[in-house]
Write a structure and sequence with these properties.
By secondary structure, the chain is of the alpha/beta class. The protein is built from twelve helices and 18 strands. Strands 1, 11, 12, 13, 14, 15, 16, 17 and 18 form a nine-stranded mixed beta sheet that branches. Helix 2 packs parallel to helix 3 and helix 8 packs parallel to helix 9. Bound molecules: pyridoxal-5'-phosphate. The site of pyridoxal-5'-phosphate has 18 residues, from helix 10.
């Protein structure tokens, strides 16, 4: 844990709970260390802002030199507001509308197109344009089946076998394919999948197929440990292999291309905490059920992906351990943060810190049961500031009914 308990407890008291807290120092460190792992002179990291679009995080990463991987017009607009220039943003949405394509193109952002039908429509409307193409790497990996985006059973990317059809469209409309992209999945379990996906994309990235390439983009998916005893991936070793493969590829292509990655989870997961307070404790025939003042709409990963999040009782870290079910406040039996978890005694009013809550937690949130998303606090160099306040219930209702009534 990088932020200490005393600080977190103080923030819970000051801002109330539930509360998201982000450690900006860890986030920026994770971003920077990718450059230590992958020693390619022209490496560019586009942060996948879908993982966490908090403005303070975006600004800190912008200052550190990152680009942005955006997936909706809203993402692009927010990235521009955070100060990213359009040429530092790549747009990798899927199943997009014509209107969305026009909107993003008008903002000067490079589109990454992942289907033949979309490519044909784009080409018809914008002949002669530059673009990136998303291929499906034909490799299946990820930390949950819902997070595996490679393989022909998924909706993502153009199949590698369709490269000739791509070339026909490109030639017909005089397009300039400046980049090729693949993304295999989130939380990749095997380094071999990263290498295989790279190799599969590089196999179609020949000068004969695509003579105008500036970059290859190998997506995101770098795994982080969620369990306390989980081993960290050896990214130094993985980075060395990535560099070797890319260097061999560039020698064959005939020029040194830029290498892009677009991680989200790796950069922000470990820097996030969600603080919840215990409202009630129930003893169901010996099964201890802890009821917290937040639920799955505010942190959905355990319910959605059966994801494990380490939980600490920061109010009573040295208590005698017992086994608990840590539950939310939503009317669904799946609304649990953890089941049968051994941890120091939990008492009503204690504050629990749900760790690794920086990626796909706040950003996947919603307002089910009409509970507004919690506030977010950003900590940098030991200084905490409110990065986004929570809406009150009255403000939330105003937003919902204000427009139409
Ligand atoms: C196309 C694309 N790129 C990058 C990412 C970021 O993945 P991660 O947060 O696992 O690094 C995702 C996540 O789903 C994605 O779909």
């Amino acid at each position: 844990m990088s932020l200490d308990r005393k600080l977190l407890l103080g923030l819970a008291r000051e801002y109330g709970t539930p509360l998201y807290v982000y450690d900006g120092d860890i986030i920026v460190r994770r971003y920077r260390e990718l450059y230590d792992f992958i020693k390619w002179p022209d490496l560019k990291i586009h942060y996948a802002m879908k993982a966490n679009y908090n403005l303070s995080i975006l600004k800190a990463l912008k200052e550190a030199g990152a680009g942005i991987d955006a997936v909706s017009p809203g993402d692009v607009m927010l990235a521009l507001k955070a100060g990213f220039s359009p040429d530092n943003i790549i747009y990798t949405a899927n199943n997009v509308s014509d209107e969305e394509v026009r909107q993003v193109k008008a903002l000067g952002v490079l589109l990454n197109i992942g289907s033949l039908s979309r490519l044909e429509k784009f080409a018809g409307e914008f002949p002669g344009s530059s673009l990136c193409l998303r291929f499906n790497p034909d490799v299946v990996d990820g930390e949950h089946v819902k997070l595996m985006t490679g393989g022909d059973l998924t909706k993502f990317g153009i199949l590698l076998q369709d490269v000739e059809k791509v070339k026909e469209i490109v030639a017909k409309y005089d397009l300039r394919v400046v980049g090729l992209h693949e993304h295999t999945g989130s939380g990749l379990q095997h380094s071999s999948s990263v290498f295989k996906s790279m190799e599969n994309l590089m196999a179609v990235a020949t000068p004969e197929n695509f003579p105008d390439l500036r970059f290859l983009d190998f997506g995101g998916g770098f795994k982080v440990p969620y369990k306390p005893d989980e081993k960290r991936v050896d990214y130094v070793e993985m980075g060395a292999e990535i560099t070797k493969l890319f260097s061999e590829f560039c020698a064959g292509y005939g020029k040194g291309l830029q290498m892009y990655f677009e991680p989200g989870k790796y950069i922000v997961a470990e820097g996030g905490y969600m603080l919840v307070r215990v409202n009630t404790i129930k003893d169901n025939k010996g099964r201890l059920i802890v009821g917290c003042n937040s639920g799955f709409p505010q942190l959905i990963r355990p319910m959605f992906y059966d994801a494990y999040h380490y939980i600490e009782n920061i109010s009573n870290p040295d208590g005698e351990t017992k086994i608990y079910d840590i539950c939310g406040n939503i009317c669904e039996s799946g609304d649990n943060f953890a089941a049968r978890r051994e941890m120091p005694e939990i008492r009503e009013n204690d504050v629990l810190s749900i760790q690794n809550a920086g990626a796909y937690c706040y950003s996947m949130g919603g307002v089910y049961n009409l509970r507004a998303m919690p506030a977010e606090v950003f900590v940098r160099n030991g200084k905490a500031e409110l990065a986004r306040r929570a809406l009150s219930s009255a403000e939330l209702i105003d937003l919902i009914v204000g427009e139409t009534n």
